[in-house]
């Protein structure tokens, strides 16, 4: 079982991010022993990371994490819908995670599309949600921050999540990954 508090997990993520920034490659445990261990004992991730599908955003590398360490949910613009919320509730309730990080990133194509485009097709579902979050914001970084804060609020509307926050010390926090520097800013 995972016995780290939300605050301990935040520190663990910060340490992992610092290692990522300072190293040429990550060293998260992806060994055969770790694969076998998680097969036999199941997964016990210490954090839930909700992030964008952008190929430049790799949570396991960003936080120097290995197999079984992070429960990652990815969708363009890191927007929250019923499917993502169901996955979040599952991880919080059944995998004993005490921290949910909504990890947005700089130069997000979905945020840019919401700010500057009028897309057709299914992407409109994503950009419409982001438009609700950012309003008329014209600064790209501020829009990305507004989007992650909005996503945190969406997650915290879940009665299950509220229950885990009160009874188990779960925290839901926004963060922004700078794709140029590799630094994560916990907001």
Q: How does this structure look, described?
A:
The chain is an alpha/beta fold. The chain has eight helices and five strands, in the order H-H-E-H-E-H-E-H-H-H-H-E-E. It has helices spanning 6-22, 32-41, 59-62, 82-94, 109-116, 123-134, 140-156, 159-168; strands at 47-51, 70-74, 99-105, 171-177, 184-186. The chain has a five-stranded mixed β-sheet, with helices on both faces. Helix 5 (109-116) packs across helix 6 and helix 6 packs across helix 7 (140-156). The model has no long low-confidence stretch (mean pLDDT 91). One of its GO terms (biological process) is carbon utilization. It catalyses: hydrogencarbonate + H(+) = CO2 + H2O.
CATH homologous superfamily? Carbonic anhydrase
Outline, from the CA principal axes?
globular
Give me the secondary-structure category. Answer: alpha/beta
Number of helices: 8
Radius of gyration: 16 Å
Pfam families: Pro_CA
Keywords: Lyase, Metal-binding, Zinc
Organism: Floccifex porci
Protein name: carbonic anhydrase
Record keyword descriptors for this entry:
187 residues, five-stranded mixed beta sheet, Beta-carbonic Anhydrase, Chain A, alpha/beta, globular
